[in-house]
């Protein structure tokens, strides 16, 4: 085996995994190719991608129309800086995004990923405040737990910065609680807990001083930090009312939930009376074919900023022509294949199959989600909803077992298991009924193996 082929430790060079993998740890499989909802490694093993990568590959792998658009644009120009040149596909993508997002989302600022898009969105919100004479507004309220990306600013918005080694470097922004549908606060049902959490936003704005609060950001359907958790409709209406009452901008982080994954182009479209002021997109916007993210704002908001000097805080690869060509091809394919509607239908079927699986595996405490943005939460005791001991790290164990069963899953625990253990069920939006059945079969085999391990360890399920 050559040095290039070796999977052993290297004195220098190697892959990005060397930044987090322990020396001597078994490396992940090497990808050979991917098509549709499947991925193959160099050993010939086939894996069903139940996670779309990290909830990114909405369109599935190897779409010929997208690949052709990439080739065509690469032959013309791979790079052009927007300050010097206009890109036709940037214009067309902006038009099509505005059509799909609807009134109030007329302009899209395109960047190279979700975290960058979140940060640019917050910066834009600040410049808008300055342009409208509200320069005292600078604080951004987020929820706890949350995840909005891994840049320093996004880390300040995410989870609890006091528990991060980066804490001294992070902005200390206020946090409000999340209404967890499966785990409402003690003594409350889901509706009452959602009301409590919404009113906590109002109380926090008042405590901080309304004239200092710039925005409130949340994932309308939670990703890494909440496992497809979402609140009752009244919660979204109420936070919209509160933000409007105090002149606070409402930002929906739809890096995961956007681009059709929940069954509508934006998750925001599920709550007509709770339209946000700004929406952030990523992941599915480029569908894994090219790094792409962005935020959407109204034409009126953009014009106010332009008249006050403009928004010049983008990076080198903002609105990159190749990225725009990919994004345009992905969106056209999404619409031509009616993938949001297919996601809604396939998601209903997937959740029904997962609920059947729950009958055989009592460690499945909850099945939840919208469209093809779903999660399973695991419990040690379904009666009490008791969590597994944090030191067990069942998310990591399940991921390894699933890999052996030919299934790629996105298992996650937030805060070391403080809020529970879950895995995301987010296959590409093109997934067929037969492929959903295969997914559930492989997941069942994975859970069977894990349950056997629990029994051998003396844990009764």
Walk me through the topology.
Blueprint: E1 31-35, E2 38-41, E3 46-49, H1 52-55, H2 64-76, H3 88-101, E4 107-111, H4 114-131, E5 139-144, H5 152-157, E6 175-177, H6 190-208, E7 213-218, H7 233-246, E8 249-253, E9 278-281, E10 293-297, H8 299-307, H9 321-336, H10 339-360, E11 364-370, E12 373-378, H11 394-404, E13 407-408, E14 410-413, E15 421-425, H12 433-456
Parallel strand pairs: 3-13, 5-6, 5-7, 7-8, 8-9
Antiparallel strand pairs: 1-2, 2-3, 4-10, 9-10, 11-12, 12-15, 14-15
Helix pairs in contact: 2-9, 3-9, 4-8, 6-7, 10-12, 11-12
Question: What are the salient characteristics of this protein?
Answer:
seven-stranded mixed sheet, 37% helix, Aspartate Aminotransferase, domain 1, Aspartate Aminotransferase, domain 2, alpha/beta, single chain, 461 residues, 2 domains
* pLDDT < 50 runs, ≥5 residues: 1-7
Biggest sheet: strand arrangement: 4-10-9-8-7-5-6
| Biggest β-sheet strands, sense, barrel | 7 strands, mixed
Helix content: 25-40%
| Counted beta strands | 15
Measured by DSSP, the beta-strand proportion falls in 15-25%
Overall tally of structural domains: 2
């Amino acid at each position: 085996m050559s040095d290039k082929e070796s999977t052993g430790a290297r004195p220098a060079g190697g892959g990005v995994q060397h930044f987090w993998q322990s020396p001597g740890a078994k490396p992940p499989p090497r990808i050979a190719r991917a098509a549709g909802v499947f991925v193959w490694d160099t050993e010939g093993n086939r894996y069903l991608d139940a996670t779309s990568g990290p909830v990114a590959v909405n369109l599935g792998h190897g779409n010929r129309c997208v690949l052709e658009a990439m080739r065509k644009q690469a032959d013309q120009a791979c790079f052009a800086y927007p300050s010097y040149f206009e890109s036709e596909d940037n214009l067309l993508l902006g038009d099509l995004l505005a059509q799909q997002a609807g009134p109030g989302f007329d302009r899209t600022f395109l960047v190279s990923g979700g975290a960058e898009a979140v940060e640019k969105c917050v910066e834009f919100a600040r410049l808008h405040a300055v342009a409208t004479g509200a320069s005292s507004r600078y604080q951004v309220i987020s929820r706890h737990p949350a995840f909005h990306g891994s840049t320093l600013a996004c880390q300040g918005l995410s989870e609890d910065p006091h528990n991060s080694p980066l804490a001294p470097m992070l902005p200390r922004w206020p946090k409000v609680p999340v209404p967890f549908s499966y785990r409402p606060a003690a003594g409350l049902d889901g509706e009452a807990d959602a009301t409590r959490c919404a009113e906590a936003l109002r109380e926090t704005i008042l405590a901080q001083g309304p004239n200092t609060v710039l925005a409130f950001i949340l994932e309308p359907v939670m990703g890494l930090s909440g496992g497809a958790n979402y609140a009752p409709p009244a919660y979204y209406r109420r936070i919209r009312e509160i933000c409007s009452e105090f002149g606070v901008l409402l930002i929906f982080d739809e890096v995961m939930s956007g681009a059709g994954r929940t069954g509508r182009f934006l998750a925001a479209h599920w709550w007509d009376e709770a339209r946000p002021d700004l929406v952030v997109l990523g992941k599915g916007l480029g569908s894994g074919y090219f790094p792409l993210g962005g935020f959407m704002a109204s034409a009126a908001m953009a014009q106010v900023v332009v008249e006050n000097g403009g928004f010049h805080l983008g990076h080198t690869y903002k609105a990159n022509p190749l990225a725009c060509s990919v994004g345009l091809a992905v969106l056209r394919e999404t619409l031509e294949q009616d993938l949001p509607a297919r996601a809604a239908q396939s998601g209903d079927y997937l959740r029904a199959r997962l609920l059947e699986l729950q009958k055989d595996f009592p460690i499945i405490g909850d099945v939840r989600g919208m469209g093809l943005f779903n999660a399973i939460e695991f419990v040690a005791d379904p009666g009490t909803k008791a969590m597994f001991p944090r030191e067990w790290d069942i998310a990591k164990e399940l991921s390894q077992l699933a890999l052996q069963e030919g299934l790629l899953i996105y298992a996650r625990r937030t805060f070391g298991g403080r809020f529970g253990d879950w895995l995301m069920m987010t296959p590409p939006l093109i997934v067929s009924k037969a492929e959903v059945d295969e997914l559930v079969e492989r997941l069942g085999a994975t859970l069977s193996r894990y349950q056997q391990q629990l029994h051998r360890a003396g844990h009764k399920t």
